[in-house]
Amino acid sequence: MMTSLVPLTELPPNRRTWPLVLPAAMLVLVAGFSGRLTWVHAVMLLALGGSFLLVWLDRSPAEPAAANAGPVPPVPETGSDTRRLLQLLLAIALAGLGAWAAVRATVSGGESRGMSPGLVGATVLSPLLMLPTLGTTTALAQRGHTGPAVTALVGTVLLNLCALVPAVVLLGYLSSAYSHRAEAGSLLELFQKYAQPTPYPLLVWRVDTVLLAVLGFAMIPVAIGRWLPGRFEAILLVFVYIAYFVATALSNRSG
């Protein structure tokens, strides 16, 4: 949607991070063959995210942009490092509180109306979670910073795959073990007997992860300047998202 309004005409120096979506998506795709995400998968994703962070923070000059790419507009400063750190910590705290409230409301609201949490999440939470991202990145692109806006979206995907997914898996182990705390003599015995991996739904593995891997592969020619998607590709992706949204909602309803 963002590039349908403002096509990508410039490549920022940190475009080297764009292809990193592919290895992260492939690791999650391979992990899905077992139908569950274990602590081993969580550690592998965290390690992968750590290596990605080194690339993300690398300030060395990037390769020259493609011939058809214009100059990179300077991104305005947003404040001191201390202020940005405080804003980041506040955003993390509010995001955690909002996530907890959203999950509680999804489960209780779905049960009261005879709907599964998956259906409520697919039809309500998913579009709502996209709105802030679409608003901020579109505003950034309209000011001539389409490349940095794409980088921000890539960073969100990598954060979800390499930080949020491992956190969910590891917290799942803690939660399942803690629920049986009165049935084990020691902490080691508690984890050995009752800690459980996180189930990996077949629908997510077949649809979400495969689509993510395809999009990650498509980011490679974009990052090296061989292909700059325009309005046609952007509109096509919008229709793909609508089809994905409808298919996910129908699958959760039938399930």
Give the topology.
Blueprint (H helix, E strand, L loop, with lengths): L1 H4 L15 H11 L4 E2 L1 H19 L23 H32 L4 H26 L3 H33 L8 H8 L3 E2 L2 H22 L7 H24 L1
Antiparallel strand pairs: 1-2
Could you explain the architecture of this structure?
This protein is mainly α. It has a domain at 2-61 and 139-254: A middle domain of Talin 1, CATH 1.20.1420. The chain has nine helices and two strands, in the order ααβαααααβαα. It has helices at 2-5, 21-31, 39-57, 81-112, 117-142, 146-178, 187-194, 202-223, 231-254; strands at 36-37, 198-199. A two-stranded antiparallel ribbon has the order 1-2. The two termini are 30 Å apart.
What tags apply to this protein structure?
A middle domain of Talin 1, 70% helix, 255 residues, 9 helices, globular, two-stranded antiparallel sheet, mainly alpha
| CATH fold node name of the domain at 2-61 and 139-254 | A middle domain of Talin 1
Kindly state the mean pLDDT as a whole number? 76
Q: End-to-end distance, in Å?
A: 30 Å
| Assigned CATH architecture of the domain at 2-61 and 139-254 | Up-down Bundle
Helix and strand succession? HHEHHHHHEHH
Strand order in space, largest sheet: 1-2
Q: What is the percent of helical residues?
A: over 70%
SS strand fraction: under 5%
**What oligomeric assembly is this protein in?**
single chain
How many helices? 9
Structural class determined from secondary elements: mainly alpha
Shape: globular
